[in-house]
Every structure is written in structure tokens, then in C-alpha cells.
Design goal:
Chain lengths: 580, 580
């Protein structure tokens, strides 16, 4: 029985065969399996190209061909033979030349009378292995030959493919749900952020609602950090080149750095991370071991010169605010400090219903060249992290080879409500930068002692965390985080506005974020708008409520019994206070 | 009787004469009056140069020459004569050529047998006008010929000069006080900010204490803004060039912009101001007149490529956080919105004991080319501002010609505790950017109506405001703003630490920022350290306090009677709450 990948690869051939039948002028190029199906890139420049509306008929053609594809097998051919067969197709000729130049064998695969240049990895019995209904042509897009924009633009046809019809349908349902939860779509609907053509791609602008959400998240992280003795610091977004030459980031990040030449000819860069700047705050004076650890927290925007094609909503941006922190401490404090961050992470993520997994990212003894520093120091450092994991009695993933070049780390992976996994928080031990920046404290003996640094981001980047959170919650943030927590809706402007206003004032006095939606639109329309904005509580005010001095409460999931304003205030205030 | 400026200018000649006597190889160049005295630049490259230690003897030489300078008068000479007289001095020859090239007359001024090339403006009777004791040679510094670093380095000798000895002494006392209050010195002593050679000049790094002070100031401004309906927004620190081409800032600011070319070859710039970005937040959707004003508040770092030589502490930096706000409203809302900002400014500045003056910065009818827009619109706008000033019944300075190119403004000038004036807050009416960015609302008739923008910074830049505030208060911030509000000092570690700790915990529970300084140093040393750090309250804990359950309180100005912890907590909490 063929593997799913083999079946997907075979379907790419079937697609090419169907295209060859319907569009004889088409030049097939490359068609691999991908993680939800397959695609094939064609050059249709010699005639008509299929449109989205033609996919159903191509799908039918594949289904028609499939029964005749009983066997699929490969033959080794000479370069000459291959060139003769694909003489009219410059794309295939380029591939043939490459294979030959590498000294590899050239193979052709044939089934149902259709032959393609291919290195193999197919179903041997397509008609038997592949079920009608388990695959579906999905969409058409443009793609440059070999992904290079200097090359001709080809037409890419995507197909979805799974083992069974049920799996295909489940995937489609999940995709639909993901589309409905797409943070780019919801971000606009909920009026959280925007982009401007004049400002540029990958540079989100934050609206009042979006800024409020960011600030609330950031304040929550800092509240957790304050308990552990962290203090805020602030730094500029640029630096002289020299800082990154010393830290080692200049070489490592040089392609992604936004660089600046000043009018006096000095080279500066925008910061892609904050650690080198923070070392300079530590280095401003000499420290006694008694004053350590120094714990610096700083939510600040970092900049990376990402390529336009890779930018996507808030997931991949050029400007992102890191909720960064660095702890400057002695080696002997590392375990305690890691545990503090561990606790913060394990308080923060469950607040939103994320489940956490941890990966122990370690040195790879087979590739010592990837790391800096003495193996003895690495052993000490990894033992320390292992001790933490054992003390926590938690299952963890082995991340051998996943350490940073400067030290081992614990990476945290959050599972969202759709079962997707996202690497989020991280705690890293850094023995390298303290060396490079000569950071030390004066120890009990009056000697200079090299210190270590711990890097600890909780959200990582607020932008990326928000993209995950929006999709995880479908925009229905917990009440403490909702930009508008309560929407008051008087049924009639004349009769109920006064009381509605009193209710709003009473709730605001409790610190609740209330909006009043007067009676310009019908009640139904206003309720729908409130629900679309994912407001946690809608309060409808009519005669009955005014008379009884109550409110009728509709939460996002249910209608509650009418209650007094005081009771409702208490309920909401408690929910906000407890972040439930 | 000669004016002070004429006397200062004459003293520069006297200095040149004294130098010529003592240093015959010296080549005098240029020697003007400045606003506290005078200076003269000499080329000493032909022999020895005076050092700071030689100033007293040069001063004596001037005092000796003075009585012989009974008259000072000028003579017109030909270019040839002037060149002959200064034939050995290439600096003077360059000046002579320039004067001649411009077709101006060349004059030489002589007194006491000393002649110098000069355009005049002296005391005619130096010996009579200038009093011994009213001037003093101050210091020596290097200066490039004509301020250009490509030219030879000269030696500049500075002198102070006033009408009387008393005025000179008063100036020196004020200078001494200013040096003691210098924010660069106090910023380091109070551990508020630091600079790093690796990060670069003009880019302050903020320590935990400094960051706390910044955040408290910013939170105070936002608290005042919140009452007036402002909301926070957030923006990236960079933008595509196109944004500034549209706003008109690209041309205006191009020398001061930090520019970036991305790896894909696009031109970006770091933002030197925030208004163009904020227009893009407003422009994200269509607004009904009912939804206006939109009031966006944003404390965010701006960047300007200042020249290294102009950078100074926090007063002139390359990175500065503006507490910026923009109101998008209809013309008819301008007065109300100006008054809201007026109130914020007049709450904020008096909190620190600053006195405010206001300048009405208007259109200059003699120079219409300096402004954009219709004079009728200007009249309407200025009338609106005048109405505000009249309603306030306040005296204001006339600022004809001080308007921004896009509209009139109200500028606020604060007087500090040393009588110095600083332009601080500003409220500006902008009719230009809404035009350039096509910002509008839908009015009552369903038509598009052009809106206006109000720019309103309260502190201006936090860096500059802090430099002023530190010098105004000599670092003794009001209690609500002090990084450490109370310092608890147990006399003996063994006997008083427990109680001291309880006091600290009790105060922290009230939200007071307390530090405990254990008994590692002598009490005297710890008290001095607390006073140096300008901590508002020092609590000394000894046997008597432990026994009576009280604290002995020393404020920055006086010793208070012992009081209970509860009473003291209340006193401090009230002071913080009321920002007194």
C-alpha cells in the first residue's frame, strides 16, 4: 500500500496527464507532494490557461483517467533519450541537464500512457491505492519558475489529498474554521489594527482597541514579573554597528538588519533584539554579588528586514514588540531564576486556555562546531535545566541540537483550540554575551566573577502572540481583555436612555469598559453588531428593566436571569479581577 | 556710554592685545561678543600656547592695558593696506579678501596702540566704560577655524563680562548652581540614565529608576488625557518614504532623517514625528461626524540624525519619546478641543511648580510665502485661538511670524526655579495634513467634509522635559515621582531589622515605594546616601521606635515628630495621591 505522500505525488502526475489532455500546448514543469496534497506548475504561455472555474472539469478528467492507471513504473533513460522526449519543453530540459551534470540517473515514470520525468516515490498501483473523493483540486495561483522572480511566471494548480474522503472533509472543515478565525480578517472586523500602503507592508498600525489589548497583555506579563523582582528599563531602537560587532549579531543577522548610515557617515542599525542593549545598562556600574540578580524587563519594538513575500498579517512582520527580559545573575542563581520564569509562563498561558508542552533544547555532541564555549560549562548548564525538568516531574520533548549557540534553553509550545501547535515562550541560558561584554560582579572574596544572562520572553512578540490568540479565541477575548466589556442597549431612545446611562456610569465606576449603543438602529441590528464585535456582555434595557431596576444580560454563550446592576457589576468585576 | 555688547566686543580686542604682548607668535583670527562675555580665537601653532593656568596672568595684562585704552576709533583702509598690515596672518588675509569680494569697506580699529581688523561696534572710551572686576577670563577650548573640522584647530579663550562686578558675581553664582543641578551629573548620581560608547552618542539607555520616572510622568499625562476622551494608539518607528512625500516632511526634514534602504531596495525612514502615521490610523475607515473627535494619544520614540557636536545629555538627543497626541475633528470643534489641552497643560506644569506663559504664534502678513492655505482660513483659525485667549483673560506674548507653516499655535513657556525659560508644551492647529491625506468625515448632510488636526504634546519630549525637571528640582522630585519614596534605616541589624522590615511591608501594602538599607554601613553614611539620592523620607529605626511602635521621620527639609506607622503611611499616601 502506498504512503499518503506517494499517493499525493502520484496525483500530481495524474493532474499533469489531465492537463496534457485538455491543454495540449501546456508545458509541465515540476509537481511535488505537499503537506495537504500536491501541486503542479505549468507554462500555459502557448495558449489558453485554465481558470478557477475549470478546476471541476480537470478534477473529472483525473477521476476518468484514474481507473486506467493500474500500474506505475519507472525506466532509466540516457540524457539523449530524455532530451528527445522533452525537446519542446525548456523547463524539463533544464532539469535533465542538472540531473546529468550531477551524475545522477535520469528516470521516467509512466502510467496510463502518460510519462513524466521524475525521480520516483509514487503509488505503484494508483487505481487501487487512490480513492475517488479523497482528493480535490483546490485553487490556481501564479508561481515563478524555481521560485525566482527573474524567471517566467507559471501557473500553479493546487490539489488537496488525503487517504480517505472523511479525512479530506475533516481537513476542509478545519480550513473553513481557520479561515473564519483568520486573525487578518478578525483584526479588521474587531478594529484592532490596520496597515497603510504609505507606511508599508509588515508595519501594523494599532487602533485604540488594539492598543488597549496590547497594553493589557503587556501589563499582565509585567504584573507577573513584578512579583518576581523584575524592573522595567528602556532603550533606543538603534545602535552603532559596534554593539553588534561585539555581541556577534552583526554577522549573524546582517541580512535582516535595517541599516542606517548617519549624515556623518557612521553605521547604525535598528535593533533586531534587545540583549546587547540591556548588557549596556548592566555595564553602567560595578555590582556586588549582594545586588544580583538584576532583572530587566522591557517591552520594545524590534525590527527585521523581512522580504515582502514572506510578510503575513501579524504572524510575520517587520516591526514587532518583544516582551523581553534579561536576568543578570551568577551561575548559582540560574535554577531559581529559571523557575521564576517557568511559573510566569505557567500562569500566563493557562489564563487563555492554552496547553503547554516543553522542549529541552540541548547541545548536539555530534556537531560541537555549532556552539561556543567549553563542553564542561555546557554540561553544568544542561544539568541545571534537567534538574528543573525533573523537579517539575513533567514530560518534555528532547531537543538535542536545538540549543542556541550560546547555551541550552527551555522552549514552550502552546496548543490552541484548533489543535495547532505554536512555539511561544522561551527561557535561554546565555554564557556567551557576558563573556563578550565582560560582565561581572564582585563576589564574596572581592574578586571579579563572570556572570551569566537569562533571556526570557513570555509572549515572545506581542504581534505573533495576538495573531495566535485571535485565532485561538476567534476574537472572543476573555472579559478582562475585551476592548469593550459591556454593551448597554436601550430599546427606546426616549424611554430607556436615562436608565441605560445610569447603568453605564455605575459600571464605569467599577472600572468596567462600557459602551452605550443608543437607539439609532433597531435592537436586532445592535445586538448583532455587539455579537460581531465579540462583546462579552450585552445588556438590553426596556420597560421591565427600568421598572425593576435590573438588567437583562446576554453573555456570548447564554442569556442570564435578569439581575440588579449591583449584582451584575460584581459578577463582571470578579471575572476581570480573576481573569476568568 | 557703551552698551554691554560693545564693552564685550572691546574686551575681545583687549584680550588680543594682551596675547600679542605675551605671545608674539600668536596669530589672532576672530573675536566676537557672546551672550555672557566674549571670546577670541588664536593660532598658536608658531610657538607656545597659553594653558588654563595662564589665564590669571593674561587677565592681569588686560587690566594693565585698560587704562591706556582711553579712545578707540576706526579708519577705513584699502585692501592693499590691510593686506600689508596682516601679511603674516593667513586668517586675517582670508577675511580681508572676503570683505573686499563683497565690495564692503575694510576698517581697522585701534586703541592703546593695538590695531585689529574689525567692522566696529566698540566702546569709544574703553578705559572709562569698562570696570576692572566686571570681566574675567574664563576658560580655554579648541575651535576649528570658521567652525569647520577640515580647517586648522585654533585656541579659543573665553571671557565673562558684565556691566558691574556684582552682575558678574551673580552670573557666576547662578552658573555654579546650574552646574550643581546639571542633569547630566544628577542623572548619573541618581542612576536615572546612562550612555554607552557601543550604542552611540545621543541615545540614552534608561535604568530601572529612570524608566520608572518616565513611566510615572507619562501615566500622569495620560490620566489627564483620559478624562478628556483620549485613547492610546501605537505605530512603528519607520515608514516608507511615500508617507513623508505625501505629508511634505520628506523635503523639510530630509537632512535630519535616519534613512534606510531595505534589502529589496525600498527607501524607508525612521520617524522624526508621529502625525503622518496617525493620519493613517484615522484613514483606516470612514467616519460619521457623530464619531468625531477622534483623539489619539501615543508616547513613542522619534529619531533625528542630529550632528554629534550638537548632542548634549538629554537636552539634545537622537532618540526622544514624544508624549504626542492628535485630535481629528471638525473646524467647529477646535475651540473646545484646544481648551481641553489647555486644561491639561495648566494642571500638569503647576504640579511641579513651573510658571507658565503663553505665546500666540501667528501668521505673518508680511511673509505670506511662509505659509500654506487661504488667508481666510487663517483668519478663522486665528480668531478661534484669540477667542480662547480672551476667554482665559490671560496675558500672552505676540508671536507674529511664529506660526507653523500649516497653522497657528499656542506655545507654552515654563519658568524654572532658576528663572530660566523653556518652551515646553504646544497646541497646534493643522489644516494642511488633512488636505494632503484627504481626511474627512461624513457630515449631517451626508457630504464629505474636510476635517482638521490638532497636534498637542504636553511634555514635548520626555527626555527634554526630564532634563528641565531634574535641574528645576535639583533631582528632588515630588514624592509621587521619586523612584524611592521612603528609605527605612534600622540603626542596628540585630535589634531593629525585624521591625524595620515590618514598617517596609506596611508601607508597600499602601503602594509606597520603599527601600530598606540594612546596617552594613554606619547610620550617618546611610543617611547621607539617602539624602544624596534625594529620597523624600528617611525613617530611622532604633530602640525608641521599636518600643513605641513609631517611626522617626526625616523629610528632605526637616525632621518631623515621631509618628505611628499608620499615620506616616497616611501622610505619604495622601502626598502621592494629591501629587503635592
Amino acid at each position: 500500500m502506498a504512503s499518503l505522500e506517494e499517493k499525493r505525488h502520484t496525483l500530481a502526475h495524474l493532474l499533469a496527464a489531465a492537463v496534457a489532455e485538455r491543454y495540449p500546448h501546456a508545458k509541465p514543469t515540476i509537481g511535488p507532494a505537499v503537506d495537504n496534497g500536491f501541486y503542479y506548475d505549468f507554462d500555459f504561455s502557448g495558449g489558453a490557461a485554465p481558470k478557477e472555474g475549470d478546476l471541476a472539469s480537470l478534477q473529472a478528467a483525473i477521476e476518468e483517467l484514474l481507473p486506467s492507471w493500474t500500474d506505475m513504473s519507472g525506466t532509466e533513460v540516457s540524457k539523449k533519450d530524455a532530451e528527445d522526449r522533452f525537446s519542446g519543453n525548456p523547463f524539463k530540459l533544464e532539469l535533465i541537464k542538472e540531473i546529468a551534470d550531477k551524475g545522477e540517473t535520469i528516470t521516467l515514470y509512466t502510467s496510463g500512457g502518460f510519462t513524466d520525468l521524475c525521480r520516483g516515490g509514487h503509488s505503484e498501483k494508483p487505481a487501487h491505492d487512490i480513492r475517488v473523493g479523497s482528493f480535490m483540486l483546490e485553487r490556481i495561483a501564479g508561481a515563478y519558475w524555481r521560485g525566482d522572480e527573474k524567471n517566467p511566471m507559471l501557473t500553479r494548480i493546487y490539489g488537496l489529498a488525503f487517504d480517505t474522503k472523511e479525512e479530506l472533509e475533516a481537513y476542509q472543515t478545519q480550513q473553513e474554521e481557520a479561515r473564519a478565525r483568520d486573525h487578518k480578517k478578525l483584526g479588521k472586523e474587531l478594529d484592532l489594527f490596520t496597515f497603510s500602503e504609505l507606511v508599508g507592508p509588515g508595519l501594523p498600525l494599532w487602533t485604540p482597541k488594539g492598543t488597549l489589548v496590547r497594553d493589557l497583555l503587556d501589563a499582565y506579563v509585567f504584573q507577573l514579573r513584578t512579583k518576581e523582582g523584575y524592573q522595567k528599563v528602556e532603550i533606543p531602537h538603534i545602535t552603532k554597528k559596534e554593539l553588534y560587532e561585539t555581541s556577534g549579531h552583526w554577522d549573524k543577522f546582517k541580512d535582516e538588519l535595517f541599516r542606517i548610515t548617519t549624515r556623518e557617515g557612521h553605521e547604525f542599525a535598528m535593533k533586531p533584539m534587545n540583549c546587547p542593549h540591556h548588557t549596556q545598562i548592566y555595564a553602567r556600574r560595578q555590582w556586588s554579588y549582594r545586588e544580583l540578580p538584576q532583572r530587566y524587563s522591557n517591552t520594545t519594538t524590534c525590527y527585521r528586514d523581512e522580504q515582502s513575500g514572506e510578510l503575513s498579517g501579524l504572524s510575520r512582520v517587520r516591526a514587532f514588540a518583544q516582551d523581553d527580559a534579561h536576568v543578570f545573575c551568577r551561575m548559582q542563581d540560574v535554577k531559581t531564576e529559571f523557575l521564576k520564569v517557568w511559573d510566569i509562563i505557567h500562569t500566563f498561558y493557562p489564563t487563555f486556555g492554552f496547553e503547554l508542552k516543553v522542549r529541552f533544547s540541548k547541545y548536539d555532541p555530534l556537531h560541537p562546531e555549532n556552539y561556543l564555549g567549553d563542553t564542561k560549562v555546557w554540561d553544568t548548564a544542561e544539568d541545571m535545566l534537567l534538574e528543573i525538568l525533573e523537579e517539575k516531574g513533567i514530560e518534555y520533548m528532547d531537543g538535542t541540537g536545538e540549543a542556541a549557540f550560546y547555551g541550552p534553553k527551555l522552549d514552550f509550545i502552546a496548543s490552541d483550540s484548533m489543535g495547532r501547535n505554536w512555539q511561544v515562550a522561551t527561557i535561554q541560558l546565555d554564557m556567551l554575551q557576558p563573556e563578550r561584554f565582560d560582565l561581572y560582579c564582585i563576589n564574596e572574596n572581592g574578586d571579579k566573577e563572570r556572570i551569566v544572562m537569562i533571556h526570557a520572553a513570555i509572549m515572545g512578540s506581542i504581534e505573533r502572540f495576538l495573531s495566535i490568540l485571535i485565532e485561538h479565541t476567534a476574537g472572543a477575548f476573555p472579559t478582562w481583555l475585551a476592548p469593550v466589556q459591556v454593551l448597554v442597549l436601550p430599546i427606546s431612545a426616549e424611554k430607556h436612555a436615562d436608565y441605560a446611562n445610569k447603568v453605564a456610569v455605575a459600571l464605569r465606576a467599577k472600572g468596567v469598559r462600557v459602551e452605550l449603543d443608543g437607539a439609532n438602529d433597531s435592537l436586532g441590528k445592535r445586538i448583532r453588531s455587539g455579537k460581531n464585535m465579540k462583546v462579552p456582555y450585552l445588556l438590553v434595557i426596556g420597560d421591565a428593566e427600568v421598572e425593576a431596576g435590573t438588567v437583562s444580560v446576554e453573555s456570548r454563550t447564554s442569556k442570564l436571569d435578569p439581575m440588579t446592576v449591583a449584582d451584575f457589576s460584581e459578577l463582571v468585576a470578579k471575572e476581570i479581577e480573576e481573569r476568568t
